[in-house]
């Protein structure tokens, strides 16, 4: 076998050959990391004897083989690259990466469909979940908190699809957003007072506009002596300045679609946990009614996010979501929304891929049968320079009308 291997010139063929030998020798399922590396090193030494390979080349082979056996194969390279924010696997032959808001095609791909399927199964098993032809769709997360969506055939026609939204231990701070031009000092000062005063804030925006990031940033302003309950489909929030915090995460059902724990269940039980504030990572459906009721029962300073094209659209979407969970008159829903939410922050992405706060509005109740939103800050575009959109968030001339909480907080 050694002579046959030495005729091989391609590094990838070399890796495949060594990997096969390692897998043949490791016939146990629950081998330790040390044992895997021991066998890998033995095969590398045996099969590269007499070949002029540098230490770095051997180390690359070593890592590649280990990742294909126990890690996430070639995805490990992108997971460890801090410049990559999103990984999109479109079948075995194509991987796309998002860097600095722009999508590019990776130079590498999975060797074959089997390797990709094995990686999808390993991702699922790490979170004690199952993904197969019977349950081909899975939402889960990696150990570091990165969010993962997996779709297998027959749903995914061209092979397994894996999408990973990476998570960072050191999320962006308000200083980072100011430096990036996402928000202005004046708007930050307003939002800081609003959070500390206990205004209920809703953050809206499109996919990838930075809603969760901005929610994390606003949480920096929450007084450290409060008790916070966070509720999410997949835990992403990182609140660093609060000690008394409980994080709750929804759970999908098993193969028989049993034992699921929904966002609605978590919101209801959170009310019995003595929260000062309740933070719902994102509302997508019928849980909107439970969120609004929770926000209307004395949990001032609560926050949440949702998908919408504008702040006004978000109000309409909330109406629709409430109707998913309860058949009540639209007029009553609008009263609930306007009583629960006080400030809406809308985010967006520009053509230069930058993420900006586009609008900060006050909810002023119901007027002429519609929820009245009054813009306090609005992004004004001033042109474009070197491919980057120029502009900033400016005051509209309207002042916050509901100042009771500001006064009560001493501002």
Structure, described:
The strands form 2 sheets. This protein has a 9-stranded mixed beta sheet with strand order 9-8-10-11-7-12-13-14-15, sandwiched between helices. The radius of gyration is 25 Å and the shape is elongated. The N terminus is likely disordered. Strand 13 and strand 14 form a beta hairpin. It is built from 14 helices and 15 strands. The protein has 3 domains: 67 residues, no CATH class; 91 residues, Beta-Lactamase; 235 residues, P-loop containing nucleotide triphosphate hydrolases (Rossmann fold, 3-Layer(aba) Sandwich). It has 411 residues and is an alpha/beta fold.
Properties at a glance:
3 domains; 411 residues; alpha/beta; disordered N terminus; Beta-Lactamase; 6-stranded antiparallel β-sheet; Rossmann fold; 9-stranded mixed β-sheet; elongated
């Amino acid at each position: 076998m050694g002579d046959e291997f030495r005729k091989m010139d391609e590094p990838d063929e070399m890796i495949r050959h060594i990997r096969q030998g390692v897998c043949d020798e490791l016939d146990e399922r629950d081998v330790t990391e040390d044992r895997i590396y021991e066998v890998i090193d033995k095969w590398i030494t045996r099969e590269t004897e007499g070949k002029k390979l540098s230490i770095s080349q051997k180390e690359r082979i070593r890592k590649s083989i280990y990742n294909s056996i126990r890690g996430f194969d070639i995805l490990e390279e992108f997971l460890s690259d801090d410049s990559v924010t999103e990984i999109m696997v479109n079948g075995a032959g194509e991987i796309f990466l998002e860097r600095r808001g722009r999508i590019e095609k990776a130079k590498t791909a999975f060797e074959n469909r089997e390797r990709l399927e094995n990686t999808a199964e390993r991702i699922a098993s790490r979170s004690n979940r199952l993904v197969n032809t019977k349950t081909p769709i899975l939402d889960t997360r990696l150990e570091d908190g990165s969010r993962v969506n997996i779709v297998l055939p027959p749903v995914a026609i061209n092979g397994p699809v894996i999408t990973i939204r990476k998570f960072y231990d050191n999320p962006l701070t308000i200083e980072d957003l100011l430096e990036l031009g996402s928000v202005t000092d004046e708007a930050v000062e307003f939002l800081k007072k609003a959070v500390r005063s206990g205004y209920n804030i809703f953050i809206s925006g499109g996919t990838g506009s930075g809603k969760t990031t901005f929610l994390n940033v606003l949480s920096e302003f929450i007084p450290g002596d409060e008790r916070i309950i966070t509720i999410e489909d997949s835990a992403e929030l990182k609140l660093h300045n609060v000690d008394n915090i409980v994080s709750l995460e929804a759970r999908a059902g098993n193969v028989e679609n049993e034992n699921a724990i929904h966002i609605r269940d978590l919101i209801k039980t959170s009310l019995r946990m003595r929260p000062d504030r309740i933070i719902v990572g994102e509302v997508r459906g019928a849980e909107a009614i439970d969120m609004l009721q929770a926000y209307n029962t004395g949990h001032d300073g609560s926050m949440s996010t949702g998908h919408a094209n504008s702040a006004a659209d978000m109000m309409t979407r909330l109406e629709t979501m409430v109707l998913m969970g309860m058949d009540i008159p639209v007029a009553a829903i609008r009263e609930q929304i306007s009583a629960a939410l006080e400030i809406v922050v809308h985010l967006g992405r520009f053509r230069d891929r930058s993420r900006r706060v586009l609008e900060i509005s006050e909810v002023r109740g119901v007027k002429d049968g519609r929820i009245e939103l009054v813009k306090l800050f609005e992004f004004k575009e001033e042109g474009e320079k070197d491919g980057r959109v120029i502009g900033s968030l400016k005051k509209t001339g309207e002042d916050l009308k509901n100042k009771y909480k500001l006064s009560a907080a001493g501002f």
